Amino acid sequence: MTETSRSRTLRVLDWFxxxxxxxxxxxxxxxxxxxxxxxxxxxxxxxxxxLVLVLQLATGLFLAIHYQPNPQLAYxxxxxxxxxxxxxxxxxxxxxxxxxxxxxxxxxxxMYRGIMYGSYKKPRELLWLIGIFIYLALAAEAFLGYxxxxxxxxxxxxxxxxxxxxxIPVIGKPIAxxxxxxxxxxxxxxxxxxxxxxxxxxxxxxALVLVHMIALHQVGSxxxxxxxxxxNVNETGWPRDGIxxxxxYTVKDLFGVSAFFVVFFWFVFYRPDGWGFLLDKLxxxxxxxxxxxxxxxxxWFFLPFYAMLRxxxxxxxxxLAFAGSFALLACLPLLDRNPVRSIRYRSPLYKLNILAMxxxxxxxxxxxxxxxxxxxxxxxxxVTEIFYATFLVLPFFNKPRSPRATLTWLILAEAVVxxxxxxxxxxxxxxxxxxxxxxxxxxxxLLLLFGMALLRPAWTRDAASLPERLTAGGIFH
Length: 477
Ligand code: HEM
Known about the structure:
Elements: H1 3-19, H2 22-31, E1 34-36, H3 45-66, H4 74-85, H5 89-116, H6 125-147, H7 152-165, H8 172-180, H9 187-219, E2 242-244, H10 245-270, H11 303-311, H12 315-330, H13 332-335, H14 348-369, H15 374-392, H16 403-427, H17 432-438, H18 440-455
Antiparallel strand pairs: 1-2
Helix pairs in contact: 3-5, 3-9, 4-5, 5-6, 5-10, 6-7, 6-9, 11-12, 11-14, 11-15, 12-15, 14-15, 15-18, 16-18
The structure holds protoporphyrin IX containing FE.
Residues 43, 45-47, 49-50, 53, 107, 110-111, 114, 117, 119-120, 124, 127-128, 131-132, 134-135, 209, 212, 216, 221-222 line the site of protoporphyrin IX containing FE.
């Protein structure tokens, strides 16, 4: 750049800076934002989620131009006008479909990273809570979008969910009627779902993500060691273990973006339906209100919750189990009050429990993917109990426990599980024989966890001390 063009650029920048603090924003948020120097691969998923949010907004805009929110036209506007007749319509639609699933993969990994490294603990409780609201908004956005192609699964999936809402006492029926805009799913439902999907939820999501970023930059990033970098600063006030976000992490994130795009576009070009997981096979048939499919289930990212709804033999309690799982996530800062943040320095049994959390969630998804047989429903109930248990046992790990306290925890936890099961038998929705045969599943988990704590108290002890400076560590620990 010549001297004259450089001074011209500076003058233009100066003109902007007097009116809008562009340079100051760049400095405080990027080039002078101290980020811990030991971010690993788990720290890519937040930026990738941001990228997918932008992709979804951009592709969604083009889809909305051709989409017709009318039951007579919706299916063909997607499958013919967009997929076949518009230039690059197939690409835009497949990117949007694959993008929806990618969003959930990234957000689930992002949340699990937060759980592993204790990013929900002081001072990041509010940041975590805002994240939970983002997740709820994202779930609503995906649910609303699923009705739009007006295929068989869109129609019947939405019918099942709005029907579940009717189980909420007093307000359930009016809410379901308001959601549908009628007594059944039809034109008014499609119109309002379309508007909520393209306008209301994206605006809400954008606002929440902005607040998420502001909260993050207020408290600063956590890291895989869970050690606060701002507690150890040099004479100028810069954290000794901090590096400027730009260029170090912008470059690292760019590498992550490239790797992500390889996988993302592989799906877009070769398997946009994800073997029926990203786009249900039944959705290639237009909605028929006179023909209920033999098996109705949501897309993969909602399957675990569907297993909870199906497993609890009462609609209202099912909804409570479903809502309770979000409440548990939101209550993590209250449940886990151990001062050690990162899983790296937590006890072996705590690690086991943190591993059981996503495993039981995946197991629930696997169960819900099967048919709604009694066998699958009962398993759904018991694995829901394990998923709940992985959260509710967290206070046990808050401080060292005596053998007597451990035994009390074991007896109480087993009693609660058995009480719930007896209560479920009393509802009589499932056969007693099958319930009794499968009761051991959550009981065994609790017995394993607390039994090992009794036999090997050392396995409940966290690391004796935390490192003073950040360490490199590995990806998975
Ligand atoms: C649209 C969805 C989301 C986007 C775009 C997003 C974006 C981000 C970004 C860019 C970061 C900083 C980079 C990083 O730490 O990876 C971050 C950090 C964080 N996010 Fe999210 N996020 C989303 C959803 C969530 C959800 C659902 C939760 C939890 C329920 C959550 C909790 C957190 C926490 C606790 C941090 C700080 C982590 C740390 O410093 O260790 N986020 N988010």
